[in-house]
Amino acid sequence: MIIFFGTRGISSRLEVGEFHCPRCGPGSPYEHKRVRRFFHLWYIPLVPVGARQEFVECGTCKGAFDPEVLTRRVPEAAPEFDYAYQRGVLRAMVAVLPAAGEEQEAERLAEVRDLYRTETGVELGLPEVRSVLRQTEGEGDAVVEELKDLGRRLDALRRTRIIQATRRVAQRKGAPSEEIAALLRRIEAALSNG
Questions:
Q1: Is 138 helix (H, G, I), strand (E, B) or coil?
Q2: Chain-wide mean pLDDT for the chain?
Q3: Whole-angstrom Cα distance, residue 174 to residue 189?
Q4: How far is C-alpha 74 from the geometric centre of its chain's CA atoms?
Q5: Is the dihedral of CA 179, 170, 174, 112 positive or negative?
Q6: Where are the domains of the chain?
Q7: 35-46 pLDDT per residue, tens
Q8: What is the pLDDT of residue 14?
Q9: Where residue 80 falls among pLDDT bands split at 50, 70, 90?
Q10: What one-character-per-residue DSSP string does 58-123 give?
Q11: Do 30 and 56 form a contact (C-beta atoms < 8 A)?
Q12: Residue 190: other Cβ atoms inside 10 A
């Protein structure tokens, strides 16, 4: 007869909410958990082993942190920085948007709008996205310079997220044109050197 025994952790959720994740930044979902190890026989927990441990798990990056992270005060971001970040995200995405017919353009602008909302939490209408597209046309150099400046003030995670969103826009319908691929490489370089 085979007997299965060992130890395993059993966790209970104490609290959920949003906090400032040390890796992801503000507004990240979290779960405050308590774990206790148990000796088990046939996967049935029988005897508690050791002390209870508490931790906070980020819902975005799945990192585990000490519960004191919930009590840390985080300075509010300056409104002008938020505006610069939001503007940089949108201009980067529309700069690499492939040229398209009227029907395809509406579909692609809707995708940019959705990615923008996911990245910044700000809701934009299609006319606003179309307006930024018209303003950004032919201004690839200006967008790259703007992103160089912005990249110096961003953490690595935000820079990576902008690069990933920009890639998704550029590569949505297959390989981008050589011109857009070159602009995408320049945007990635501008943000990577931040």
A1: coil
A2: 82
A3: 22
A4: 19
A5: negative
A6: 5-70, 79-192
A7: 999 888 887 888
A8: 92
A9: low
A10: ETTT--EE-GGGGT---PPPPHHHHHHHHHHHHHHHHHTPPP--HHHHHHHHHHHHHHHHHHH---
A11: yes
A12: 23
